Amino acid sequence: MSMLEGFELTAHLPDATWSQSGPLEGSSPLTSLSSSAGLSINTARRRRHSDSRYIDGHGARQSLQKAFKPSRAPVEASWLRNDVYAFPYSISHAVDEGTGEHGFITQHAYSTIMGQFQQLCTRGGGFWKPFDLPAFPSRAHLERCLLLYLELCAPHIPMLHSTFWRHPVIPWPVLLGCIAIGSSFDQENGAPEATHAFREFLRRSVRWCLEADTALDRSTLVQTCLLNAVTQFNSSSDDNALSAAADLKLALELYQQSYRRQPLEQIDCSQIELLWTTWVQEEAHKRLLWFSWLVDLMLSMSRGHYSLPKLNTRIEHLPCASIRWEADTAWDWNALPVEAQQQTGLVESLHWLYVKHRIPTVLDTTQNTFLTYAVVARTEEVAATVKLALHNWSPTPADGDDEDECESLEPAPQDQWLPANHEYAAWRNSACDVFDSLHFKANSDAAAARGFEGPAILHLHLARLVLLCPYRDFMALVSNLCRQVSITANSISASHLTANILKWLTLDDHKGRLSLVHAGAIFWYIRRYSLAFFYEPFAIYVSTIVLWTYSLYLPQIRNVLLGIKDSRERQHREQQQERSDIAQSRPGSSNESEDDDLIPNTILLDRPCDDEIVQAFVRKGHSMTAEMSGAGDICTPQGRRRLLEESMKLLRRSQYAGYGKAQEYCHLVQKLAQRT
């Protein structure tokens, strides 16, 4: 046993720096940060592995999926006022202990940022209202926020290469953008107010860079606008969020006009350093396009826009594998195996997923996420196409000869119910199959990480949710109900529902119940694996209103649903009688009813379920009870109320204190609870 002394089994978390043991290696971009800075990072909210093993002799080891317990105290919302900006006293007057000589934020960079703050945020008579207090945080606090960004955000939004942080002069707008994002992960006293102030300072800086700083490099401008769009994603002002998206599009257009690609084929293979430098520039360009599109897409989803951004036609390949992107030297990059150096084409990957139902050879978390939303975008393109006038019409030589026939042609209605369209329904079903394939890969990564579910799994649940249910109608319904003061629990009826929601509950009930499974899975994920990312509050909110709508209105129309079920079953029996020979030849068809007898009558939506139970719930869930932890049966008044309370617990977590949109979502859910 002596050989096992000092041996420590640690989990390997791909694409994450969730657990840091020992000193940082020299290859990390964080190594240039001096330990003398005295920056202590609050790691209580991060998921920690249990050291408990069966060998400890406690009977059962600690679960690897145990939910962590961050602060859930309600957050004061006074600082969310859009016209009040100030860095809190505890931060702006903190003693600057210094960051050492090797910090990312040099004294020159700090002076530049503070000078911009004084110019844009403290002087009266300008375009913007001055901050309520002219004080600015210390250099040490800015370094702390930057460290939070590098540790908690950068591994999951790998947009800036490690070589970026080795430049002697790092552009101050990008530094400010990273600091603003990092401040949202801070949970010290006054952190929400500081996040609010940083967000406004960055917004003004972006506007100044677009309009006044003509000498700023355009790639730096796009990077800054992208970081600004991320910070404004959860702004309590929708105008600021949409303005940030518009600024990003403008900067991206200017950048693409001037970008010139240098083909790697024209560089001598012996010049490894030049090859690597050129490749890094091209890969950074590719990732800039991808992340800009992704943030724009998710912002459109969160605001309920009916038109989502299409894929950029200039994007031909997915980002490279993480192992190649994380290579810190030209020699490490050149020594990677051949399979890691291959480029993955977007069209090729979609062909493998859609047609062959197979996963591309090399697929990591970042590529998985991009493919997930590429499928969403493709399905939305089909939805937009089938709504076009004359979509089903094909030109013929006889066109115009028969006037009566021409008059009988009607354009496709804009408000048609999409699931009834065979073309759209086929694409949506195929998208679900693709998501299953991508989910299998994400689950294998989670198994390799000892159960830790990465962000790709949350994206897969959210993507299914937006395709399987009319979430825009749900958002509009909730907003309408919350605005009507006279609405009470007794007066909420199915008459408030739109046609899309009614059809979703009745005619599209299979997909409706499948969406409930993924809505519950989002609760499971956030409770255990939340990384406090900008899209999480929206995921919590949309899953909540989907579950609430189903639980409130299904009992009111259950009789109608059962009547539809009886009609479908009669039609199915008649079809089986007509094709009895085919039905008898199908393997396993005779055992289907026997298997259903083994399925429980209850499904717990926010706990992992085996696929057999999920598919049984999708197939005949109208006769099963849907429950959630802490709520019980969600179709009962008490269950609905507790469901909303569980949602508010998540939205009130301290990790979302800097997100104004999270507080807005919580306010809407609270109003629903008062009316339920």
Automatic annotation (TrEMBL):
It holds the Pfam family Fungal_trans. Keywords: Membrane, Metal-binding, Nucleus, Transcription, Transcription regulation, Transmembrane, Transmembrane helix, Zinc. Residues 582-591 have a biased composition (Polar residues). The keyword Magnesium does not apply. The chain crosses the membrane at residues 538-555. InterPro entries: XnlR_reg_dom (IPR007219). GO terms for molecular function: DNA binding; zinc ion binding. Residues 147-337 form the Xylanolytic transcriptional activator regulatory domain. Residues 18-56, 572-597 are annotated as: Disordered. This is Xylanolytic transcriptional activator regulatory domain-containing protein.
